[in-house]
Write a structure and sequence with these properties.
Layout (H helix, E strand, L loop, with lengths): L1 E5 L11 E7 L20 H14 L11 E7 L8 H15 L9 E8 L2 E4 L3 H6 L2 E8 L3 E12 L1 H29 L14 H20 L5 H22 L5 H23 L14 E5 L7 E7 L2 E10 L5 E2 L2 H7 L3 E2 L1 E6 L16 H14 L10 E10 L4 H15 L9 E12 L4 E9 L3 H6 L2 E7 L4 E8 L6 H25 L13 E6 L5 H5 L4 H10 L2 E4 L4 E6 L2 H15 L12 E10 L2 E5 L7 E4 L21 E9 L6 E4 L9
Parallel strand pairs: 2-3, 13-14
Antiparallel strand pairs: 1-3, 4-5, 4-6, 6-7, 7-18, 8-9, 9-10, 10-14, 11-12, 15-16, 15-17, 17-18, 19-21, 20-21, 22-23, 22-25, 23-24, 25-26
Length: about 675
Amino acid sequence: MVTAVSKTKPTQANFLPLVVDYRQKLAAAGRIPTNFFRRELGPTEREILTSRLIDRSLRPLFPDGYNYETQIICNMLAVDGVHNPDVISINAASAALSLSDIPWNGPIGAVRVGFIDNEVIINPTRKELQLSSLNLVISATKRNLVVMLEGSANDILLPDLQKSIKTGTKEAQHIINEIEKLQKTFGKPKREMEKPPELSEEALEALRSMTEMRVKGIFKNYTYDKLGRDQALQEVRNGVVEAVKPTFPDIDPNLINEGYNKIVKKIFRDVIFEEARRCDGREFKQLRDISCKVNLYKPLHGSSVFQRGQTQVFCTVTLDSHESAMKLDPLSMLVSGVKEKNFFVHYEFPPFATKEIGRIGPIGRREMGHGALAEKGLMPVLPHDYPFTIRLTSEVLESNGSSSMATVCGGSLALMDAGVPIISPTAGVAIGLVTRYDAQEKDIENYQILTDILGIEDYMGDMDFKVAGTRKGITALQADIKIPGLPLKIVMESLQQAVDAKSSIINIMHECIDKPREQKKENWPVCEKLEVEAHKRARLLGVGGYNLKKLYAETGVQVSQADDTAFQIFAPSQHAMDEAKEIIEKLLATEKAPELEFGGIYKATVVEIRDIGVMVTLYPGMPPALLHNSQLDQRKIAHPSALGLEVGQEIQVKYFGRDPVSGLMRLSRKVLQAMPR
C-alpha cells in the first residue's frame, strides 16, 4: 500500500521537499519481531536503501518550481519470499502519484532485469537471481526514456548490459500503459500550482549584466581549485546582491539569491558548450590526476589512500573470525535469501571533507547508500570460500565529487594490501551530463557527456552516473538523473565512456599494487581446521565450554565448530595460533591407551554409581565410561544398588567398540551372564 500526500501551500525552500518512507513489517511475512518491545523499531538498512531507490525514480518528474512538502509512504502488506517487493513499491508509488491531484509528469514503470545463460530475464524470482550475472532495477517513462538505474553484476560485459537496459526499458512501457489506463478511469484532476514569485525583467537583467562577465571569467580560469572557485563565486554573489538591493528595495533577498543561482548555472553550462572545456581545464573525457598508496600503517591488516583531484579517501581492511559476520534481520533473510554477510563496507563522510562544521552522529541515508554501492562494486571479485569476515571502512578526507567511486578504487587497493585474493582489481568512475533541455518540447536539443565529474558539475549538471567494474566487465552501476528521462542513446554512450575511463584508472592503480599481497604481514590473522577424535572433544571443550573461554581470554584465539568432525581455529596472529596450539595439545594429550579388542572381555573398576548405571575404567588414566543399567544384568533393574555394586568393585565386561556418532565406549556385563531359567 502506497500513499502520497502533499501540502497545499508551498514552502520557502528553493528545492522539492520530498520524503519517501518504505517500511517492511514482519507481519507481512507472518513473523513477530524478536526485540524486547516485539514491534518494529527504526528503519533497517534495506528499508532506507529501498526508500532512496523510490525517491530517485520519482523526483526527476516533479515540475520545476514545485516546492510543496510531499511524503510518499510505502507499507508492505504481504511478501511471498519469491518476488522482491522493491520494484513493486516503485510501480505502486508511480500509480499513487498518477491517481492523486499532485502535479507530476509521470507515470513511470520499473522492472528488475536479470541475465542468465545469455538471456535477459524480466523480474526474476529470488531463486533465479542467485543464478543471474545481473541484478538491475530500471525505472523508465514514456518514449523509452530512462529515469533511474541501480544494480550489481557479476563482471557482466558491456554489450550484455546494454542489451539488458534496452530490454528492461521496453518492458517498463507495459506498466506505464496500464497505469495510464488506471489514471484515466480513477485519476483526480491535477491541482493548480501557485505561481512562485519571480524577479521582474528589470531586476533579472540588472543581475545578469553585473554577473555574466565576472562569473564567466571564473569558470574560464583553470587555475582555481574547488575552494578558490567557491570563494570567488561567493564574492561575486555578495557584491551583486549588495549592488542590486538599493535599486530594487522591495524585492525579497531570497528571490535575488535564487535568480543569481539560476544565472550562474546557465553560464556554467554555456561555457562548457562554447569552450569545449570544463571549468578546471580538462577535456570532456579526461580524468583528473590520480595518486594512490598502500600499506600506510603497519598495525592495520590493509590500508590505502586513493586521491583523484581533490577527492581523497582513506580505506582500511579488517579481517576477523566468521563469528563477526553481519547477521541480517528475519525479513531481509526472507527477501534476499542471505542469512549473514561476511563482507561489508562502511562509508563515512565527515563534515571536514568539504571544509564545513557539522554534527557527528548516526550514519545518514546518503552515507548508507554510498557504502552499499561501493559494496556492490567490490562483492563480485571476492573469493567465495574466504575463511575470514572482511570489514572495509572508507573515510572521505576531502571531497570534490565521486567519493563513492573513489571508495571502490581505494577499497580494491586496501583489499589487495590485506592479501585478500580478489579475482581482479576494481575501479569506479562517475559520468556527468550537461544538456540544453527544451522544457516545452520535453526534448534534449544538445548534450555533452563528462567523464570523472567534479562536485560543481554534479550540482549544476543533469546526471551523476556511477559505474564500477574490473578491466573485463561491470560490477555495479547507479544513475541519478535530474531531467525527466534520458534517451537510450545517451545512456549507452555514457556507459561506453565509463568503461574506457575505468580501464585507465586500473592501469594507474597497477603502478601502486597489481595483485593481492602474497608475503604475509606479521599481524595478519590465521585460520586452521583441527580434527579432533570424537572421544576427545569433551576434553577440548571443558565443562560448559570452560576450556575454550579460557583459551580466548589468554590468547585471543576463537575455536568454533566447523562441521561434525572438525573445529575451526581463528587466531589474530601466527604467534597467537602457535601459543593456542600448545595449550590445545596439552588439553588433548593423554597416555597412549592400550588397544582394546572388539569383543574382548576385560576387568573393569567401578569409579562412580549413578541412577542410570555405573561409571567404570578399564585401565589407569582412562576417562570413565558408562555401563548402562540395561547392560548390567539379564534382569531389568532400576538402580545399580539392586545388584550390590560399590565403588572400587571389579567386574567383568565385554567391549563392543565405540559408538560411531558420539565416540563413547559400548560395554556390556549382561552378555557374560547365563540366561535365567
